[in-house]
Design a protein that fits this description.
Elements (H helix, E strand, L loop, with lengths): L4 H19 L14 H5 L10 H9 L15 E2 L6 H11 L6 E8 L1 H4 L4 H12 L5 E4 L12 E12 L15 E15 L6 E8 L5 E6 L2 E7 L6 E8 L6 E8 L2 E9 L4 E8 L6 H6 L2 H11 L3 E5 L8 H6 L1 H15 L4 E5 L5 E3 L5 E3 L3 H14 L3 E3 L1 H4 L5 H7 L14 H31 L15
Parallel strand pairs: 2-12, 2-13, 13-14, 14-17
Antiparallel strand pairs: 1-17, 3-11, 4-5, 5-10, 5-11, 6-9, 6-11, 7-8, 7-10, 15-16
């Protein structure tokens, strides 16, 4: 029985609309069906659970991972000047469980880092292998709705919150995490952790003339009251111990005006403390200019990090003129600030991930200035004695976000910038494995230095020699 005339015309019109983007280049952005995928639907096969989902996903997103001769990749972690040797030395002491052997890492980055993406996976891997010295630094309230740290819950109210890159009060006094919290009576914060192993909490604030007071408690027990008044403006810190452990730190009972930064959640054991310092929308200028040089230097000297990761470039990568004329100078300025403050600390410049954009053809490509920005970062690292991790190439290079977006399930959001947790885990895994591979080479070199090269084999007694 033939279809009614109106129904037939509707189906024909629908088919024409679906086919038009493939026939007319100007309409390709409106494509609703990729006809090349139809055979895959007809040949559908059930996907069995993967034994190594992260590894499988990583292989699937690499354009050079198909059958055929394996390509010899350039190393993604480059350390021309051996700057990571001092980081590896600290990690070696931590692995041996030397007294007070804590390896401290500060990872500065932009929006993915605000949600502890990538950094959470690196932290978990390091602490699983080398010991858990605590979660590290956490802001006292949420500057952004998506701010979070894995295994930590942050709540707060009554604060004037000022990230260093958008603050009204441009005085450079933003603490270790580049965010300042000003409050008075009624302001409060609660930071909760999912495990019970933390036994110390360090509170960071700004001492200043006419500063007020606030109270610190752990699991409902008052640890102390802090007076922030001081004749001079200076960053201050105090560590409180809770030998039985705690799961919640509370800040309240504010009197007068106070200015806080954050808390560090610590454990009294050798291990790794991996601090995630993300600011939404941040660019390299947040370290080069927004943070007061001496103020930030005081913060760095207090923590005594063994490694500082400088991980910016995503937000700059769409501004070609800025990349070509200003980015390098700003990156050098930030590196020099860290070197001056903590000259014994290793620095790792970590490139941004791929950043996708829709092309006129409707396909997803990579923003054009990104490759130049990554090359600048590698050049600055070599020239200023830093290590360099090429995240962009490690994750698959140009077009990776396009592949991640078309995968099922997707590994990047619709903005083609922010990874989903599965994508972040791949990047974190790549960074961790690269650092640990370097550390293993460091240990091998130590063993060779200590025991010497293997002795040459001696011919049996009485054998003939030429």
């Amino acid at each position: 029985m033939p279809l009614p005339k109106k129904t037939s015309l509707t189906l024909v019109a629908l088919a024409a609309l679906m086919a038009a983007p493939g026939l007319f280049p100007a309409l390709r952005s409106y494509r609703v069906l990729d006809w090349s995928t139809v055979p895959l639907v007809l040949d559908f096969q059930v996907r069995l659970p993967s034994v190594d989902p992260v590894g499988d996903a990583q292989v699937a997103t690499r354009p050079d991972a198909g059958p055929g001769p394996a390509k010899v990749d350039k190393p993604k972690l480059v350390d021309v000047n051996g700057d990571l040797q001092r980081f590896y030395a600290s990690l070696y002491a931590t692995e041996r469980r030397d007294d007070d052997a804590v390896t401290r890492i500060l990872h500065y980055g932009d929006s993915p880092t605000t949600a502890d993406l990538i950094t959470a996976d690196v932290r978990t891997s390091f602490q699983k292998e080398f010991g858990d010295a605590g979660h590290g630094f956490v802001l006292v309230a949420k500057p952004w709705a998506w701010y979070g740290h894995r295994g930590v819950t942050v709540k707060g109210s009554g604060w004037k919150i000022e990230p260093a890159n958008t603050a009204e009060l441009r005085d450079g006094q933003y603490g270790l995490g580049a965010v300042s919290f000003r409050g008075g009576p009624g302001a409060w914060s609660k930071v909760s952790v999912s495990d019970t192993g933390h036994t110390q909490v360090e509170v960071a604030w700004l001492s200043q003339p006419d500063g007020g007071t606030f109270q610190v408690a752990a699991d409902g027990q008052t640890l102390g009251t802090i007076d922030t008044s001081s004749p001079v403006v200076t960053p201050s810190f105090q560590t409180f111990s809770a030998p039985g452990g705690f799961q919640e730190v509370a800040i309240g009972q504010v009197a007068g005006r106070v200015r806080l930064y954050g808390v560090r959640l610590l454990k009294e054991a050798p291990g790794v403390e991996y601090n995630s310092m993300g600011v939404n929308g941040a660019a390299i200028t947040i370290l080069a200019r927004n943070m007061g040089e001496e103020h930030w230097a005081d913060q760095l000297r207090h923590v005594k990090p063994n490694l500082v990761v400088i991980n910016y470039g995503t937000n700059e990568s769409v501004y070609g003129k800025y990349v070509d004329t200003a980015f390098e100078n700003e990156l050098v300025r930030a590196v020099k600030r860290v070197r001056t403050a903590v000259p014994e600390t290793a620095i790792l410049i970590m490139s941004p991930m791929d950043r996708g954009q829709r092309m006129p053809t409707g396909e997803i490509g990579t923003v054009e200035p990104l490759s130049r920005l990554v090359a600048i970062e590698q050049r600055v690292a070599a020239a200023h004695g830093c290590a360099f991790f090429n995240t962009f190439e490690a994750m698959g290079g140009a077009g990776t976000m396009g592949r991640w977006y078309t995968m099922q399930p997707r590994m990047v959001g619709a903005d083609l910038i922010h990874p989903m947790p599965s994508g972040a885990k791949i990047v974190g895994n790549l960074l961790y494995k690269s650092l640990v591979d370097g550390y293993r080479r460091y240990k091998l070199a130590l063993a060779k230095e200590k025991f010497g090269p293997p002795a040459a084999a001696q011919p049996p007694s009485g054998s003939l020699r030429q």
